[in-house]
Amino acid sequence: MLSEEEYQDAIWKFNNTPSTITGKPRQHLRAIFREKIHEHELASRYPPFEPLNYKPFYINCKTTEQTLIHLIETINDSDLFTLDAESICIPKKPNEPALIQLQIIQKNLFSYVIFVEVRHLPNMHERTFILIQELFVALFNSNKNIYIWGSIDELKKFLNFNLFSSSQIYLSNNINLQDEFKIFWKQHHPHKPKVSSTNDNILCICETCLGIQPNNPWSLKNAVAYQLNQWLDKRRSRSPFDIGLDPTLVHLNSKELAYRQTMTTYAANDCLSMHHLIINMKLIEQQEPANELSTEPDYDISMYSDSSDPNDLIVLPNENFKINQSSNLNQQNNPDVEEISSNDDEPEQPYQHININNSSHNEFQYERANISNEQKRKIHNRTCTLKQRKKLYKHEIIRRGIDRRFTITLVKKILRERSINFGALNISTSSLTNRTSLYIGIKNPTLLSKYERETRNLFSTDHYNEIHSQQRRSNSNIHYSHHHHQQHK
Ligand SMILES: [Zn+2]
Questions:
Q1: Count of structural domains within the chain
Q2: Are residues 16 and 103 in the same domain?
């Protein structure tokens, strides 16, 4: 935030640009001061953006296989994502891509934010590199809804890193939130001519009155300010995002650590504020399937323990556990509501151009209430899903103690290759025994014993190593050709 003196100085400079400066340089200079003034006004008007809880993950040469497998599983289990990317500016050269931020929004609205540090990736021959590729295979999939502030084309700058191909990025359902927001704002804020009989000083907030041209896209910062009444700090958009944000990447002193932490928060906030917007714009409800039940139900670690037969599932205790978890989540959300309420008493700033009435604050509180109803509905659905699940797993093969590096995607692939007609699939790790089990629902009970024989030797550690040594052999061939990504087709 600027000091009052700096702020007045910026206004003066904006209004008194020397007449000797003309044309493009003049426009450029005025744009810099206009932006500075605007930033200051947003920062003094609104509290800083507060994200919902999230857990950060860094993907680079230090990331373990275990972490990557966990992230792939989480992606497989989610259908809602936000994505952003950062580049670094090099004078007189095109921007260099540096970082991909991916938010995985889980069913309970908790999320992961993954930072793919493309300048610090493992060697292409490493198994972890292949897993990072697999992560993008899982992501760019027709049932994944990915929100981006702009176009997915942004990722084309990252093709040289060989993490995904140009055709892959169009396989998912990519939604340009920047375009969606423009339509949303126009629908919700048509121009309101000031009625002279009313003495309130509420100004119109239609695009034209806000000074946003019909062809101009919205900045994320403005959308967060006008829709969420929060200030998204964008002053670090020109930071060196290629330095390695992961605190474990190299040894760092406390100052260096703090700097990376600030940049990580900045990079995460782009994704997290998009998430906030899609909740606020009620886009999530539309995105979610009406019926949560599918032949491939979501799985979670608490669902089964190794010692019990899944057919003897006791539904209620699990459900109580879920309800407790989700009421905790609501409590975590509540501080946002409090913060907004206290913000209502914020003194009016004399210099502000835009007065937005407080109704949008109330709208936001209303929105919060909706989330908890939505969660209640989900909990109800989950109960139904569990009952259905009992049916889905009625005829099933259970493989205890499988190698936990097998992902659902990989298991499906292997079963399909062997023409095993499966229904529901589930992998779970017992918190007691730490053993991982695979549950394969079989639709046709007459084939159960045949399938049982055919899968007897699958999914062991030996099986996994065998697959990967094959893959390595075929990869080492692929590496010498230019069509690295053909292995995924
Ligand atoms: Zn207007």
A1: 3
A2: no
The rounded Å distance from CA 210 to ligand 1 centre is 7
Q: How many Å apart are CA 116 and CA 480, to the nearest integer?
A: 25
Distance 203 CA to ligand 1 centre (A): 8
> What local confidence, expressed as pLDDT, does residue 271 receive?
97
Per-residue model confidence as pLDDT tens digits over 318-337: 333 332 333 333 333 333 32
Q: Give the Cα-Cα-Cα angle 340, 342, 346 (nearest 5 degrees).
A: 100
> In the sheet that 54-59 helps form, which strands lie side by side, from edge to edge?
54-59, 111-117, 96-105, 80-88, 145-148, 173-176
- How far does residue 217's CA lie from ligand 1's centre (Å)? 17
pLDDT tens for residues 172-214?
999 999 999 999 999 999 998 876 555 555 678 899 988 888 9
Q: Ligand 1 centroid vs 339 CA: distance in angstroms? A: 29
Judge if 17 and 121 occupy the same domain.
Answer: no
Domain that residue 38 falls in: 4-45
pLDDT in tens, 55-79: 999 999 999 999 999 999 999 999 9
Residue 365 Cα, ligand 1 centroid: separation in angstroms? 25
In a domain, 119, yes or no: yes
Using the 3D structure, point to which of 29, 45, 61 is the last residue of a domain: 45
Q: Which residue has the tokens 């700033």?
A: 349
* pTM > 0.90: yes or no: no
Looking at 232, 250, 283, the residue that finishes a domain is 283
> From the CA of 2, how far away is ligand 1's center (Å)?
29
> What is the Å distance from ligand 1's center to 151 Cα?
28
